[in-house]
Amino acid sequence: MCNMYDEFLRRVEQYRFLYKMTQEEVSNKIGITQSQFSKMELGKTIFPNHVLKSLSDMNWDIDYLVTGKETPKQSSEIIEILNQYETENREEFLQLILWTLKQGIHKQEKEIDSEIKCEMQVLFCRNNHEKSTSLLYEVREVLGLSQHAMAEKLGVNIKKYRMLEKEIIQPDAELLVQIYKISGCKPTLFLYKERMEETIINDLWTAVRPEIRNELITFLKQAEQLLGR
Q1: Are 81 and 194 in contact (CB under 8 A)?
Q2: DSSP three-state, residue 43
Q3: Cβ-count burial of 59 within 10 angstroms (0-12 exposed, 13-18 middle, 19+ buried)?
Q4: How many beta carbons lie within 10 A of that of residue 50, not counting itself?
Q5: 91 vs 171, residue with greater confidence
Q6: pTM of the full structure
């Protein structure tokens, strides 16, 4: 088991202590036995995707558990602006937001870490496709890897990888660690794919310096007037 997964397990135990919960209390809340949770926490079995979701629903920060980095908890003003738009106008304004974010990120490109760069590329990859694709496919496209090469990097056989990319099965905690390690793609994007777009936009906005955010907000407000808002 990789060192990053060992760190994940250590943070899980620390989080449980932080919330002053026993293994039995955690396992009861997420619908598994204490024995099952104990084996997961000790690294004898891997935390499955559905258990991570259940922990996240308990307000455990899964991104922090996997990556060691805390993530923003509140929606940014950019999301609040986007959510004001009705369905028929939302896509048009979303494209404007994406273009605006790209300009902001490029203004401080040297300061942006690999996670944010990956998220930006994934978001643009997703919005450039005419049909919906899986997040793992988009990450692979960003990395420029074949399915066989991606499977090798994740340490799975090609059959399992194709099932993961088609979303027939979901990545467990160890795979999420590996995906993050090679791409910088945060785990919760795989847990809550229905909120993926807004999560990435929020992350990108938070990464932009305050003075640049002010410039972008001014631009977006001017654009709103042109769009008849």
Answers
A1: no
A2: coil
A3: exposed
A4: 14
A5: 171
A6: 0.81
Tokens of 83: 């959510």
Phi, psi of 185 (to 5 degrees): -80, 125
DSSP single-letter state for residue 47: P
Give the model confidence (pLDDT) of 163-217 as tens digits: 999 999 999 999 999 999 999 888 988 988 777 778 888 888 888 888 888 888 8
Enter the tokens of residue 148: 């066989």
In whole angstroms, what is the distance from residue 199 CA to residue 202 CA? Answer: 5
CB 1 within 8 A of CB 181: no
Q: By C-alpha distance, which of 214, 168, 180 is closest to 71?
A: 180
Contact, 117 vs 184, CB < 8 A? yes
Q: Which two tokens stand for residue 75?
A: 């929606």
